[in-house]
Amino acid sequence: MVWQGTLALMVLKTLDALGPLHGYGIARRIEQTSRDLLSVNYGTLYPALLKLEQEGYIRSEWGVSENNRKAKYYKLTRAGRKQLAREAHQWKQATTIMDRFLSPTKEVS
Amino acid sequence: MRQVRAWFVRIWGLFGKNRRDREFAEELEAHIQLHVEDGIRSGLTPAEARRAAIIKLGGVEPTKENHRDRRGIPFLETLARDLAYAARTLRRNPGFAATVVLTLGLGIGATTAIFTVVNAVLLRPLPYPDPDRLVYIAMSFGEPGDHAFSYTQDYAAWKSHSRTLNQMAGYMRFQANFTGGGEAERITGAYATLSLFPLLGVQPVMGRTFRPEEDRPGGPPVAILSHAFWKRRFGGDPSVIGKSLTLDASPYTVVGVLPATFLIPDRHESDFDLWVPFAMSETGKAKSIMLQVVGRLKPSVGINAVRSDLEPLMQQFRRGPKRSVVVSDWHERVAGGARRSLVLFLCAVSFVLFIACVNVANLLLSRAAARDKEMAVRRALGAGKGRVLRQLLTESMLLGVLGGIVGLALAFWGKNLLIAWISRNLPALAPIRLDYRVLAFNLGLGLLTGVAFGLAPALQASQVQLNESLKEAGRSAIDGRSGHRLRNLLVVLEVGLAMVLLCGAGLLFKSFLRMRGIDPGYRSDRILTLNVNLTLSQYPKPLDQTRFFQQAIERVKVLPGVEAVGAGTSLPLGGYSMTVSGLTIEGKPDAESMVSLTMVSPDYLRTLGIPLVLGRYFGDADREGAPTVVMVNESFTRRFFPGESSLGRRILNPAKKTNWMTVVGVVRDIRPWPEVAAAPEMYLSYLQAEQVHLRMTGGEMGSEMGLAIRTSGDPMSLLAAVRSQIALIDKSQPVHDVKTLDERRAGSLAPRRVTMLLVVTFAALALVLGSIGIYGVVSYSVGRRTHEIGVRMALGAHQSQILGMVLRNGLGLIAAGVGVGLAASAGLTRLISSELWGVSPTDPWTFATVVTVLAASGFAACLVPAWRAARVDPTRALRYE
Q1: Could you tell me how far CA B626 lies from the centroid of its own chain?
Q2: Is the ipTM here above 0.90?
Q3: I need a surface site. Which of B260, B347, B707, B708 has the fewest CB within 10 A?
């Protein structure tokens, strides 16, 4: 199970890195980059995509896949790009803080 | 921001369901195909690849479902589905739906109608800017009751030294004879201080308000017209500004016309026809020595601060009780008087609504039993308890809201009737409308009643025992003990509530009859009464005044249909009366009591049918120059000469300390008002007005007289003739306040009558609904027991035994309800004791009558189903099911 927020951020990053992509492609990519750490149940991706689309961060249109199949392609909007930058920044900040907090430090007294 | 956008998209997503479903199915299919191709490339067979893809996806249907949930708003979609289903169910049972909706509509409609009035009077703020900061200021001599007035001298001191009020203004009612342009008219106007209109934020629709130089002694006489008066007496003349009008023979210049919506929210008076400047001096000297004061609080000042600010500014008199200041929120002061009766109505009507809800709940319970199987099937197919509960509640809330709509229509239609009825009990406030608050109240009430009557049946239905219900053919499991007990309990409750309402109504009705039945001491039938207030500048001396009324009496006396005519300074139920205290009575050194004083024409007491007890009535010989005579009533004798006769005693004239007046006659007491007991009273002959020389503030006592005309037929039919006879003497002296004496008596009882009628109406409604409830439960139980009754009859039970069995069942419920109701009434009727008169809140006769009425109508309600049960044909009953 992946957190909704994290999943959304991964989707945005994927679309940013690879350009327009269909749902299956996004799912594979997330699975690969997370080195199977996060075993996505592919189905959960679709409500997340729908939510992002409702919020206006991504757009979808029908296109043709690499092996000539009709598929729905998702791509980042301007708002999505901004949202990605913002979220990525927050995420980094959060991890840095957690890193600092969890790494062994000398007791200052 | 983004969330809002998402919600909009989701609402949009509620539509075009099929297209969207298709599209997503295609998208998923493409996804699976892509996955399958990858699988085949890595060496799987197509079938294995497809299986793997679907497993990885997490199933096709669940994915679709998750997608659908995110696409629209599942809550709303379920609601829409439940509503559609409920509507279908109701359409299939139009009789049931109509009964429920009408029952609820009655209850909700009555409640909403009362609420529109409560809203307008108690909830809506006064129609002035920043109304929360308006306070009403009056003085008190330490006596309880309504404090309405202040002295102008205090007002002047407050106005210049107050530190807690931003603005302060005063007004005072006056009456005057308006002449010029058509018939002369007695108008009611008000003096207003310069500050009044700015304080209330009112802008004239034409012209202007007062100027500083106009609001001081000797300032130019100007007047501002009310919108209604301008329309009525000036035909809405657009060039009225600058024109002149005449009040009490003095000219005034019209400077403005007020908007139609402007009014002073005062529960004593109706609208003022026109306004003139108060013209008070710096020290508070003015034509009127009293006034009504309103003020506007400074920011962050409380009401108590005003009191301690103003009180030291009052000059205490050397004699008389200490005066203090009473400061109240203006809205509270205006509406406060109506609160009690409005709350009473709201309580009464909510009882009716509650009874309606109980009835509907019972109907639903019966129906739930019939739908038992449906619920069992739903549960068996996987609907949770919550889901079934939700669907049933949706259904009952739909019924509630439908009832609310019917109720709103009833309220809209009934509100004018209601207002016409109870406006006498209300302050003059802005028009009573159905505004958003009323609509919200109505909708809320519909939903609330939906939950109130739907919850118990729904809870019971959702707890259905699956196996039992599905197994039992025909007979319902809900119909068992607990459902039965709940229904009976509800009926008992309902009867109890109806009983409380009936007891209240009965007590109010009895008080009203008591009060109406009081012998007032005079005869009020076939008497026309009217008032004439002579313009003082035209009739300055008592002799002139007496001559006018003497002429009027002579002229009216000879009109055909007139039996007798009398004139008096205050008619019974006619407003003001004069009282004197500190009488000097020969041989009685300390006569401190207050005594009312009325000056009358020789025939006045005879015309009103006030019987003589001792001595003689006044005669034409009791005129100027003759010894001054006085008549007294029995209370006077009892008070000052207990156990003796007052005839021939002498009383010193309170106005002229050299003039002794001799008692020549004693008459029976009359009650000045229905609720007020008779008090000591003196009558003087108005033919001796000059030598008696009594003065009232604002004029000679004899300038204001009421005429009482005893007629042989309908009193009102003589009005035109009387008017024209008086106009023939002087057409600039208007006749006003024309009523028959019977109308005056009815008017004095009107507020009680309205309260009584409303509560009686609600009680009757409760009785009808309660009877329907009893009928419903008994006939339902007969229906369910048809089989049993058949068996009993087949085994030899007699028709009368069956009849008795059913009646016992019904009467048991009624008896329990009456018991509950008696206990509740005994406790609750005390709350309306201030509305009662001459009746104890636990009057046994009223209670007994109510029990009888309730038992009789309950019995009638049981009789029909009982009779039906007794006529059951055993052979058919046994085949039933």
Answers
A1: 54
A2: no
A3: B260
**Closest to B649 in 3D by CA, of B633, B665, B625, B635:** B665
pLDDT digits (tens, 9 = 90+) for B525-542: 999 999 999 998 899 888
Evaluate if residue B358 carries a pLDDT over 50. yes
Task: Check residue B424 and give its pLDDT.
Answer: 67
pLDDT tens digits, one per residue of B294-303 = 999 999 888 9
In the prediction, which pLDDT does B466 show?
A: 67
φ, ψ (nearest 5 deg) of residue B471: -75, -50
The rounded Cα B533 to chain-centroid distance in angstroms is 34
A59, part of any domain: yes
Rounded to a whole number of angstroms, the CA Rg of chain A reads: 17
- Residue A46 placed within a domain: yes
Is A108 inside any structural domain? no
User: First CA to last CA across chain B, in angstroms?
Assistant: 62
CB distance B605 to B631 below 8 Å: yes
| Cβ of residue B11 closer than 8 Å to a chain A Cβ | no
Q: How far is it, in rounded angstroms, from Cα B276 to Cα B189?
A: 8
Residue A51 belongs to domain spanning: 4-102
- Quick check: B506 pLDDT over 90? yes
Given a contact cutoff of 8 angstroms between Cβ atoms, the answer to whether A74 and A24 are in contact is no
Between CA B505 and CA B351 the distance in angstroms is 13
CA distance B600 to B706: 9
Tokens encoding B158: 């407050």
Cα angle B166, B172, B173 (rounded to 5 degrees) comes to: 150
The pLDDT score that the predictor gives to residue B470 is: 64
CB contact under 8 A, A71 and B27: yes
The CA dihedral of B477, B478, B481, B487, to the nearest 10 degrees, is: -160
CA dist B688 and B622 (Å) reads: 7
pLDDT value of residue A2: 47
pLDDT tens sequence across B360-390: 888 888 777 777 778 888 888 877 888 888 8
pLDDT at residue B4 above 60? Answer: yes
Provide the 10 A C-beta neighbour count for residue B517: 9
Question: How distant, in Å, are the alpha carbons of B70, B205, B858 from that of B805?
Answer: 60, 75, 15
B183 close to B734: Cβ distance less than 8 angstroms: yes
Q: How far is B6 from chain A (nearest CA, A)?
A: 5
Q: Helices B481-517 and B330-370: crossing angle, nearest 10°?
A: 140
The closest alpha carbon to B204, from B256, B244, B165, belongs to: B256
All residues of chain B having their beta carbon less than 8 Å from the beta carbon of residue A54 are 5-6, 9-10, 13, 70
CB B470 within 8 A of CB B373: yes
Contact yes or no for B58 and A42 at CB 8 A: yes
User: What pLDDT shows up at residue A107?
Assistant: 53
User: Rounded to the nearest 5°, which phi and psi values hold at B578?
Assistant: -95, 140
Number of structural domains found in chain A:
1
Most B CBs within 10 Å, among A44, A50, A53, to test the B interface: A50
Q: Would you say the C-alpha torsion B384, B390, B393, B399 has a positive or negative sign?
A: negative
Tell whether A79 is covered by a domain. yes
CA distance A85 to chain B (A): 16
Among B31, B57, B36, B34, residue whose Cα is nearest residue B48: B36
| B501 dihedral zone (left: phi>0; alpha: psi -120 to 50; beta) | alpha
**Cβ of residue B373 closer than 8 Å to a chain A Cβ:** no
Would you kindly state where each structural domain of chain B is located, as residue ranges?
A: 2-72, 142-322, 337-516+748-879, 539-729
Evaluated on CA atoms B512, B517, B522, B525, the torsion sign reads positive
Amino acid identity, position B268: H
Mark yes or no for CB contact B6/A67 under 8 Å. no
Contact B66 A54 (CB under 8 A): no
